[in-house]
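pasting for ref
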Amino acid sequence: VYTLPPNQAVSPERQRLINARRNQQPPYRDTRALILRKSRSLLRHIDESLRRQLHALGASARFLTTDARSTPEIPSQSVDLIVTSPPFLNVVQYAADNWLRCWFNHIDAEEVARRITQVSRLEEWLEIMEACFREFYRIVKPGGWIAFEVGEVRNGRVRLDEHVAPIGEKAGFRCQAIVINRQQFTKTSNIWGVQNNRKGTNTNRVVLFRK
């Protein structure tokens, strides 16, 4: 059955159109059994000792869904490591692309879309990132790290890491390195007619900062 991979899940209406156009009828899939099998596979390396550790850590873990520019719930100088990948300008429609995950977890995708900060102008994006870095500097411990993952946009003309590095340093961090992963495209990119290393986001760039 022709469809798109989960990270580009088409809407039910769109899938029905695909089915009609290709004269295909998807067979029934036992989603419960599939989810259980996949979960067992993903968790196969977690033994009883690690399970107990995770259970203990879970008692003090905190999950926040808030604007990264203001996190008063997090004490100052309390964070060892921040790993983040902010929206790349307006390249990806995060809520629409993840409607299936939202549906499965009883999350309103439209509400998610309203809360995600996405802008089209680079200057506005940089202003938002600058405010985020000021908050990062407040919460990160001395000696702590940030791994800030970005990419290239506008057909490779704009490399966001080159703009992020000076912003982080302006906030008080030291840029230690930029790790670049040049990847071979998979099914998702080919579906959209994107040739490898020619269009789209061709590299992942992780800017490493230290306080």
